[in-house]
Amino acid sequence: MRNIHILLVEDNAGDVRLTQEALTDGKILHTLYAVKDGVQAMDFLRKNPPYTDAFTPDLILLDLNIPRKNGQEVLKEIKQDKALKSIPVIILTTSSSEQDVLKTYANDANCYITKPVDFDQFVNAIKIIDDFWLSVVKIPGKA
């Protein structure tokens, strides 16, 4: 079984921890990398220092409400970069705004999930991401 590399762009340490726990409970071998803001996310993806040895992720979980460069800006940069645009980007955010949903899909997000506030529902949402995106979906460039 191949190791799946996931980049989580999330500034809430509790949500990072919950995501890690939910993914660990899944059946997929994975490595989760977490960054706290949009600038770090783009540095990670472009392998700028201190991320020169970073793996190119197979999947990106992106919060919209992050500092320094918001999730919409990060999404747009990813999808306009020929080297990055085929990486699936799942928006995982607290916003349920129709405007945010429309804008992210206009910027070529692959999926939009509003984070549940309930602990068990949040863990379930991560497990569903795990089940679908890491078990069912064929990720571009990965056999």
Automatic annotation (TrEMBL):
It holds the Pfam family Response_reg. GO terms for biological process: phosphorelay signal transduction system. Residues 5-130 form the Response regulatory domain. Keywords: Phosphoprotein. It comes from the Bacteria. The modification 4-aspartylphosphate is found at D63. The keyword Ribonucleoprotein does not apply. This is Response regulator.
